[in-house]
């Protein structure tokens, strides 16, 4: 962290460390709200450029009134607390519509708005006005349909892979290794027992035995964000962690869903790729490890994983100097339905010094 930078410090106790867990995602409504924030605050972020270009009419047209809640900087609206962590748009909408006036006022009181019309609508929203809440739900639903749903399959596969990587980190090195995987200096750093994150303002949060939920997030740029419900002191705060940090990951997510998939699926019929998919089923592995298991060159292994990834059967993410491959739900389902898991040819494993 640079000297003088505002930071959020999250303080862990021994009890908090054993209560750290990983969620599937931050929730569909929080992800969708992230679209509007990215469009307003981080328009030039290279990993998201393909996504912004792919939305018909542009992100601004899709986000509608959400732009009023995105602001030009500073605190963000906590849609995770207001709409929950569900991956269902309908369930998220129901939760948001049932949010109390106290919840809405607590989340909106620190936000600033740039235009008088927006301020009027937001005041009605803070008062719990049903029509104002429905206006927000409609905007989130429209933005999700235009900007998130077209990429839903790849987003799900990406988050599955990230979560599997976090689980592997926990198994290999406990919370210490997980926090190292979550952090991306200089935006965030882990110095036990404190997690420090760049923030619009200086603050200290003491978990006080509640633990922490780590939620991998797609539509979030650079720095993690901490969500917590001030009306529920027993609930564990949720750390929303950005997972799209480089152009390669972004390119894989925003590629045209209709292009190349058929060819890739046909190309999957083959002994080596069937074996590769079976190997990845046993846990995330690097390209080098996969090459050893398949007894092929690293370049050949990379080509095979490219076909599997483009078909949505595995996901790929960077972990330090390595690239890790993890099977997706679609890949696991394919193995189950075709019987590949039981019958894929066993390849010779090569021992290396």
From TrEMBL:
Residues 253-353 form the HTH arsR-type domain. GO terms for molecular function: DNA binding; DNA-binding transcription factor activity. CDD domains: HTH_ARSR. PROSITE patterns: HTH_ARSR_2. Keywords: DNA-binding, Transcription, Transcription regulation. SMART domains: HTH_ARSR (SM00418). This is Transcriptional regulator. It holds the Pfam family HTH_5. The lineage of its organism: Bacteria, Bacillati, Actinomycetota, Actinomycetes, Kitasatosporales. PANTHER family: ARSENICAL RESISTANCE OPERON REPRESSOR ARSR-RELATED (PTHR43132), HTH-TYPE TRANSCRIPTIONAL REGULATOR KMTR (PTHR43132:SF8). The keyword Membrane does not apply. It comes from the Bacteria.
